[in-house]
Amino acid sequence: MAEARPPPLLLIEDTPSLQLVYRSVLQTAGYAVQAAGTAAEGMRIFRDSGAQVVLLDVMLPDRDGLALMRDMLALRPEARVIVITANASINKAVEAMRGGAHDFLVKPFDELRFLAAVENAGGGARALPRPAPRSPAAAESPVAEDVFIGSSDAMRRVQDTIRSVAGSMATVFITGESGTGKELCALAIHAGSPRANGPFIALNCGAIPQDLLESEVFGHIKGSFTGAISDKPGAAAAADGGTLFLDEICEMAPALQTKLLRFLQTSTVQPVGATRPRKVNVRIVCATNRDPIEAVRRGEFREDLYYRLFVVPVHMPPLRERGDDVIEIAQAALERFAHEERRRFDGFDAEVLDLFRSLSWPGNVRQVLNVIRNIVVLNKGGRVTLAMIPASLACNATLSQTSPCPDQVRAGLLEGLIGRPMAEIERIVIEETIARHDGSVPRAARVLHLSPSTIYRKRESWGIKP
Predict the structure, then answer these.
(1) What's the rounded Cα separation, in Å, for the pair 163 and 298?
(2) How confident is the model over 362-400, as pLDDT tens digits?
(3) What is the C-alpha to C-alpha distance for residues 185 and 206, in angstroms, rounded to an integer?
(4) 1-112 and 130-317 agree in CATH topology
(5) If you write DSSP's letter for every residue of 202-260 in order, what string do you get?
(6) pLDDT for 113-137, tens place per residue?
(7) Of the CATH numbers 1.10.540.10, 1.10.10.10, 1.20.85.10, 1.10.8.60, which one belongs to the domain with range 322-461?
(8) Can you tell me the distance from the alpha carbon of 390 to that of 254, in angstroms, rounded to the nearest whole number?
(9) What's the whole-model pTM score?
(10) How far apart are CA 216 and CA 38, in angstroms?
């Protein structure tokens, strides 16, 4: 008898573009998905499909998302709800977790974090593509070359380090600027280790409210606090037999640092409300975009925890130090996104490649991917020209003070704006600046010399939810 297929995931997101992106990511990872744009439609599909995992935006046009979540859990308590919220609504995330949500994602989030959350909610099905079972000898050869794009000396050194450390149990401490690929590095270490067939659990310590972080790391038992309606294993227990990746480790509160140190020393976890600890077998990989030594000096990170974690350091170099890797990344991204969007592109003009080489790329690889995605989505195809480049790469924002903007580059960048109404140009510049700063309105406001409240009001008038 054929094995019964699990019910599809239910995605409830009212923004068509985001719904399309989320659905594409899930389907590419092998998940069956049903999507809804309203609370009413979502509840109907939830009843009819038997969905066990729900991805739920808290801001819906016809009803509050948390009220919908409560009705869903009342109807099917075993369902796992992953709440999606924006930076400006982090209090909603706290309310959601107390109301029974399994997990939450704060926009903007990356693809790996998204899939890891879905996998964790699915109760053990693969979250990230897992390699086929390999012999112990084969497990000692990591897949760093397959994970990273780029042939610069800086990246070869990173790959050599991954190759050397992957087969061991040593704790790895990854440093590097935002967008340099720290989570990909952690995944490469896991994939090249004897634990490759075990779970890879990623937890962003900076994206979770401090009063929920202990439960996320160590779990809780039913009834241990208001809203704990069922047992939750926590990331450390979920990673048993595999790898636990703690991203933005320097953002962890001091009280929880003490418990993490105890966990590293004893290899036991004690969920909130539990009376007995549980032994687990977990390899720790952590990362930060801050200087950990400076965090220790400022008293924000325990010195003994730092020395416990800082066994094998791996530094992910910024893109500006990787030479022509930016060209390799852009070309690979163009091919991938064009395939996803079913469009045909024929590479880049030489002027575009020269521009890419001259930019400092403060957002690193993530910024390059965002730029290429923008080009593919907003253009029908052909050869990528300067006129297709997003306004966020304007010379004054990205080229160094000592490197003047070439006339042909300036003309190409302005071509996409000339002839548009000023209000439309204003919106393009504001939205591109926010995107370049990882979705942070306050940071974008500082760059634009505006108050955050002004940007929030403008976005509200454009129909963009916080």
Answers:
(1) 34
(2) 889 888 988 898 899 888 889 999 888 886 675 434 443
(3) 18
(4) yes
(5) EEETTSS-HHHHHHHHH-B-TTSSTT--S-B--HHHHTTTSEEEEETGGGS-HHHHHHH
(6) 788 788 877 743 333 333 333 333 3
(7) 1.10.8.60
(8) 41
(9) 0.59
(10) 29
